[in-house]
Specification:
heterodimer; A: mainly alpha; about 75% helix; B: alpha+beta; 7 strands
Chain lengths: ~80, ~190
């Protein structure tokens, strides 16, 4: 008799796992934004940091909004 | 912020050349592009597999149902991490600064996000200033290492990949001359008093 391998474990991405991942990303973003802002405020010499802070916030907000909307779309489908 | 001495004036502030920032940011650009290329390639290969096989042909990467939302979620999460990484590198670049005042040279080095070193050298302690512009890019883009030999505890003060090192060297030597002249005047006045 030919031995048969056990079936591979089934793996599916659930909306709950997506929202957990979203929470991890959001916390990472919040912590890193706090750290970067502290450095720009405490140690910056010159005024370029204000402009770069604006660019950082605009870019990261855009990414976060897209991530949130895609997580929402995934949950609703 | 740097605390300056009384009557101390900042004459020059300089950072590393932008090219050094570009060299550090370039791998992140690749990290950002690679997943987009992989997704596009998988989609193309999937559709080729679907079309080339007989009626039973199957696209192994179908962009239908909840798949697009999942891909966008993972891709943009990755891009956000790359974006944060890019700003960490920029912050490291921006906070490294060389300040030349009429009293001293201050070199601020942000070694990592939570590691910072500030070295200060009084102009009268300078013995020699040399610049080292090495390579084709450094020659054309005008950046290089600035080495300051000192009479202090730290024998050599090295500032790497600074932009326009010749101008900085000239400013430092000019201020060094002024500092030495002041020192000579003070010594003569003291001798006269004795």
């Amino acid at each position: 008799m030919i031995p048969t391998l056990p079936p591979p474990p089934s793996f599916s991405i659930t909306p709950a796992s997506i929202w957990i991942l979203f929470a991890v990303v959001a916390i990472l973003w919040a912590v890193m934004t706090g750290v970067l802002n502290y450095h720009w405020k405490a140690y910056s010499i010159g005024n370029k940091a204000v402009f770069m802070k604006f660019i950082y916030l605009v870019g990261s907000s855009f990414f976060l909004i897209v991530i949130f909307l895609s997580a929402l779309t995934f949950s609703l489908q | 912020m740097i605390d300056l001495e009384q009557n101390e004036q900042v004459l020059l502030t300089s950072r590393r050349h932008w090219f050094t920032l570009f060299v550090r940011l370039f791998p992140l650009l690749l990290f950002a592009i690679v997943p987009i290329v992989i997704i596009a390639a998988l989609q193309v290969l999937g559709s080729i597999a679907e079309n080339s096989l007989t009626a039973g042909g199957k696209n192994f990467f179908p962009l239908s149902g909840s798949m697009p939302a999942l891909i966008i979620f993972l891709l943009f999460s990755w891009l956000l991490c790359v974006w944060i990484g890019a700003f960490i590198i920029w912050t490291d670049y921006y906070l490294d600064v060389l300040i030349v005042t009429d009293h001293r040279i201050i070199n601020v080095e942000q070694k990592a996000l939570f590691s910072r070193e500030i070295a200060s050298l009084h102009l009268d302690k300078i013995q020699d200033v040399t610049i080292d512009i090495n390579g084709v890019l450094a020659t054309f883009l005008i950046f290089g290492d600035l080495r300051i030999q000192t009479a202090g505890e730290v024998e050599e003060f090295v500032i790497r990949n600074v932009k326009d090192p010749t101008t900085i060297k000239n400013v430092i030597l000019e201020q060094h001359e002024k500092a030495m002249k002041k020192l000579r005047v003070v010594r003569i006045e003291k001798n006269d008093d004795v």
